[in-house]
Amino acid sequence: MASSTLICDTEQWKDLKAHVDDIKKTHLRELMSDTQRCNSMMVEFDGILLDYSRQCATLETMDKLFKLAEAAGLKGKINRMFNGERINSTENRCVLHVALRAPRDAVINCDGKNTVPDVWQVLDKIREFSERVRSGSWVGATGKPLKDVVAIGIGGSFLGPLFVHTALQTDPEASEFARGRQLRFLANVDPIDVARNITGLNPETTLVVVVSKTFTTAETMLNARTIREWISSALGPEAVAKHMVAVSTNLTLVEQFGIDPNNAFAFWDWVGGRYSVCSAVGVLPLSLQYGFSVVEKYRLSYFLVSFGKTDAVDTRFLQGASSIDKHFYSAPFDKNIPVLLGLLSIWNVSFLGHPARVSMESNGKGVSIDGVPLPYESGEIDFGEPGTNGQHSFYQLIHQGRVVPCDFIGVVKSQQPVYLKGEVVSNHDELMSNFFAQPDALAYGKTPQQLQHENVPHHLIPHKTFPGNRPSLSLLLPSLSAYNIGQLLAMYEHRIAVEGFIWGINSFDQWGVELGKSLASQVRKQLHASRKKGEPVEGFNFSTTTMMKRYLEGSADVPQDPPTLLPHM
């Protein structure tokens, strides 16, 4: 397929389009009665079980999707990513987040240079620094140990690390290592978020990690300056060097900010922000909270063992090292979990017309990697909730409203098992009862005939009818250990790559965030001019001008040159 050819122009795409009508004539109740089909739609790898039998798809559908993947050159694109080619063409960058979890003696090249030694140089620095902080040999300005960490960052510098932190908080081993410590994340520029983050913290025992590759991200740097003032006002300006460190490549701005450049931890332009959790972006704050050894288990759980081996880790790590990256790189497509997840997303979005998925990431682009406008939908609107919370927020929608393909993720063993004498089942069994039931409820629904048989009043039958035929897939993990968290993250990272490779879009740039930032800069200048100099609001459309005037009038009590005022709760 020529690089400028859209995937929708291929015979394989057109064949799938024609196949849609056949699928829409078939209900999931019928599909689920085919035991052979259901069995064929279960894939197991390294303790993870994927069941996609509740997707609105037949074995013929899957065969057609595999042919689409072949037409898109999926295997070649995966190889190009792992081989360090510059597949992020709009930014002229390699895409090598897999190098972040490679063992020390692996060879993963970008432009002919092995990236792994640089990765491990930073990891060794993180190990040494985090151990000094956790042991109390690195102390704050007043000599007190630093027990609490505030990580300041936004987007990928916040969401990935927060996800891992949330999962590790209740892991027995990790929580023991974190005893007596706190880790908080500050992302939103709203001062309320600043107040919430510093409430209950003592500047004397707090360490701040500022995460910004360029050290110019507007929201992050304003939050960093705010927290710097919080520290300086309590301990003096010289305390900043003992209480703030950076994850950045701009050492000049780091030093100008007041942070010792020796306490800056690097990452690289071949790490996309949304794929950066295995870099210092995530490893540094998580190591400060849980210890490097715990985080290393999570990192290594998704290393590609075919790139090398290491004697620095134990057998468990070597077993984990062959997990999702290796699986994605080498498994045939019909047994390849990230590939299957990606293909099913394409089927639901671009063919069945379901624009949303209860899950994680988004892949929204309007043009191909070559700049050609897409005549088909790409990306998804993603949302989700833990456990049974979703039943009381959006399950009404997914059962009787819009069709929203769902990913259900369950674990066999709870991190914190609870048993109450006399209860029918344990707390975890109660949770998993819903995990097993909801996919069937979505697939089968409930017919008017069933309701009539149950003697439901006639006027309530339309309200209690569930159409069913709503696709979902289920992932069952053995536990939610650091190892499994790493597997899960890698699985979804590679899913996004598969979608982008087939849609022919760039999954590794994010120009879509730039325009709003640019316009916000203009508004910022206007607010400054209006506050400080009394200048009128000019240069905006009528609606924005009216709203800004109302905002300025309503906050006219803000002094022109206000003294420093920090949040308090």
How much of the sequence is in beta strands?
A: 5-15%
Distance between the termini: 60 Å
Number of strands: 13
- Supply Rg: 26 Å
Shape: globular
Annotation field: number of helices? 24
Overall SS class: alpha/beta
Mean pLDDT: 89
Q: Are there runs of 5+ residues with pLDDT below 50, and where?
A: 302-322
- Sheet bearing the most strands, described? 5 strands, parallel
Strand order of the largest sheet: 6-5-7-8-9
Share in helix: 40-55%
What does this structure look like?
The protein has 569 residues and is of the alpha/beta class. Helices cover 45% and strands 9% of the residues. It contains 24 helices and 13 strands. The strands form four sheets. Strands 6-5-7-8-9 form a five-stranded parallel β-sheet, sandwiched between helices. A hairpin with a 2-residue loop joins strand 3 and strand 4. The radius of gyration is 26 Å and the shape is globular. About 4% of the residues have low confidence.
Could you write a compact summary of the structure shown?
By secondary structure, this protein is of the alpha/beta class.
Summarize the topology.
Blueprint lengths: L10 H14 L3 H5 L2 H6 L1 E4 L2 E4 L7 H13 L2 H9 L26 E2 L2 E2 L1 H20 L12 E5 L6 H10 L3 H6 L4 E5 L4 H8 L7 E6 L6 H18 L4 H4 E4 L3 H7 L6 E2 L14 H11 L1 H9 L14 H7 L2 H7 L6 H15 L4 E3 L22 E3 L11 H6 L5 E6 L15 H18 L3 H6 L7 H4 L7 E6 L4 H22 L10 H20 L8 H13 L15
Parallel strand pairs: 5-6, 5-7, 7-8, 8-9, 10-11, 12-13
Antiparallel strand pairs: 1-2, 2-13, 3-4
Helix pairs in contact: 1-4, 6-13, 7-13, 13-14, 14-22, 17-22
